[in-house]
Amino acid sequence: MQRTNIYLDEDQLRLLKHLAAEENKPVADFVRQAVDQFLRSRLENDVTWQSDMTALIERVRSRVSPAIDPDQIERDIREARHDVRTRRR
């Protein structure tokens, strides 16, 4: 996860803090939940995005041998992501 700053008006923040205290959760949990819900609704309604993503997944699958272990693919992706982040620092 990455840290970010957002600006809320006083009422929004007051209500979020109230809910957080009631449920004994951090305000950030509610903000992440709201962002997830927003993104899901946007992506579900974006037919172009869905078809593009489906096509991308199919292209990737067609290039990967069925003999390759999915766990190895995941490890390779994590390692590449770590390398990129390290170089950026």
Topology, please?
Blueprint: H1 10-23, H2 27-45, H3 47-63, H4 70-88
Helix pairs in contact: 1-2
How large, in whole angstroms, is the Cα Rg? 19 Å
Q: What is the count of β-strands?
A: 0
Helical percentage: over 70%
Describe the biggest sheet?
none
As a percent range, the share of strand residues is under 5%
First and last CA, distance: 16 Å
Structural class: mainly alpha
Q: Which parts are unreliable, with pLDDT below 50 for 5 consecutive residues or more?
A: none
Total number of distinct structural domains: 1
User: Helix tally?
Assistant: 4
Summary keywords:
CopG family transcriptional regulator; Ribbon_hlx_hlx; single chain; CopG; Arc_rbn_hlx_hlx; elongated
Q: Could you characterize what this model shows?
A:
It is a single chain. The protein is mainly α and 89 residues long. The protein has one domain (10-88). It is 78% helix and 0% strand. It contains four helices and no strands. It has helices spanning 10-23, 27-45, 47-63, 70-88. Helix 1 (10-23) crosses helix 2. The longest helix has 19 residues, at 27-45. The chain starts with 9 loop residues before the first helix and ends with a helix. Residues 3-39 form the Ribbon-helix-helix protein CopG domain. This is CopG family transcriptional regulator.
